[in-house]
Write a structure and sequence with these properties.
alpha/beta; Rossmann fold; 6-stranded parallel β-sheet; 15 strands; binds NADP nicotinamide-adenine-dinucleotide phosphate; 28% helix; globular; 336 residues; Quinone Oxidoreductase, Chain A, domain 1
Length: 336
């Protein structure tokens, strides 16, 4: 089979297709023929050696993929040949709380990834995908959608609440869709007016261009009558967190997810204390969360926002496209 590998060094240019032995499913495993994989910002960091420079090479990156079960090993009962499935991000986080051990089982991080024609995974590490979704759409779910579900729904967003989303990347647009089915009011930022218009079509009530209005937290407070929002889905990291803290209401919550502006910086803890803000780190989510989310996706016929689909031979272009920040929603790679 064909698979991508970083063989001797990190870097987009070092990612190359290699011939590998097609795995056979061991006891408790299913062999999945992948039809599509999707890109996450993390994959870009992994490929560039910025996520974890201690990852052992050769390494196959990417966490998210969807496809068909084509063979099963002994003792498998959760899936059968012909089932349409996706892998869960952390293969050992089935339910309950996150532990250090579960954290190490992330595909394309602690474990080899999904950028291959076939993968053999534990039957426990798979979920069935919603019937109304294409393989590309389903491939967007394991990381970005589950993270958004965790950050918005598991965080307890309620009808009538106000939520602030930063940028129009994968996590933010899933957060927008989940917030809307909850009946919450969405304020979203972007560096592009055109993207803000697209977000309005998806149901965002207010858009703020963070380039033309660098003090966007002020505008958020204005839009909320001076109070601030109930929840911020914080994907920006050190560069945006101080403003997110100013934009959240007293007693509100920040779901801390990403590091788009960088991981390190000075944070003043005083306003977090004085405003009784709950700052909660979020690392994707469990299989249980994935399955609850799928029920909502099916019920509401939600359609993930797929910006562009590249072919298997164009993975390096897909990564460069993500690097450019031109995308609105998810970038996929088709293997069909
Ligand atoms: N903790 C977790 O479990 C978890 C899971 C998934 C992702 N993440 C992290 O979350 C972040 C977002 O991931 P993603 O996959 O959604 O990324 P993505 O799809 O690549 O989205 C990136 C978008 O973020 C926006 N952005 C960039 N700089 C910004 C800034 N200074 N302020 C506001 N928005 C900004 C841009 O939107 P516009 O073009 O509209 O400006 C850009 O298109 C990354 O840091 C990723 O590593 C964490």
């Amino acid at each position: 089979m064909k698979a991508y590998e970083l063989r001797e060094a990190f870097g987009i240019d070092h990612l190359a297709i290699t011939g590998q032995v097609t795995p056979s499913p061991g006891r408790g495993q299913a062999l999945v023929k992948l039809r599509s994989v999707s890109l996450n910002y993390r994959d870009l960091l992994v490929v560039k050696g910025l996520y974890n420079p201690h990852i052992h090479l050769p390494f196959t990156p990417f966490s998210d993929g969807a496809g068909d079960v084509v063979a099963i090993g002994e003792g498998v009962s959760r899936v059968k040949v012909g089932d349409r499935v996706a892998g869960i991000f952390m293969q050992d986080w089935l339910g309950g709380k996150l532990t250090e051990a579960k954290q190490k089982s992330a595909l394309g991080g602690g474990m080899q990834g999904m950028l291959a024609e076939y993968v053999a995974l534990s039957e426990d590490g798979l979920v069935h995908i919603p019937e109304h979704l294409s393989y590309e759409e389903a491939a967007t779910l394991p990381c970005a959608a589950v993270t958004a579900w965790h950050a918005v729904i598991e965080a307890g967003l309620r009808p009538g609440d106000r939520v602030l989303l930063l940028g129009t990347g994968g996590v933010s647009l899933f957060s927008l869709q989940f917030a809307r089915i909850t009946g919450a009011e969405v304020i979203i930022t972007s560096g592009s007016d055109e993207k803000l218009e697209k977000a309005a079509h998806l149901g965002a009530a207010h858009g703020i261009n963070y380039r033309t209005l660098p003090e966007w937290d002020r505008r958020v407070r204005e839009l909320t009558g001076g109070a601030g929002v109930d929840l911020v889905v914080e994907v920006g990291g050190a560069g945006t967190l101080p403003q997110s803290i100013r934009a959240v209401r007293t007693g509100g919550r920040i779901s801390l997810i990403g590091v788009l502006t960088g991981a390190e910086g000075e944070i003043n803890p005083r306003p977090i204390v004085m405003k009784n803000v709950r700052l909660q780190g979020i690392l994707v989510g469990s299989r249980e969360m994935f399955e609850s989310m799928n029920k909502a996706i099916i019920l509401h016929r939600l359609q993930p926002v797929v910006d562009r689909v590249f072919s298997f031979g164009e993975v390096r272009d897909a990564l460069r496209y993500m690097e450019s920040g031109s995308h609105f929603g998810k970038i996929c790679v088709s293997l069909s």
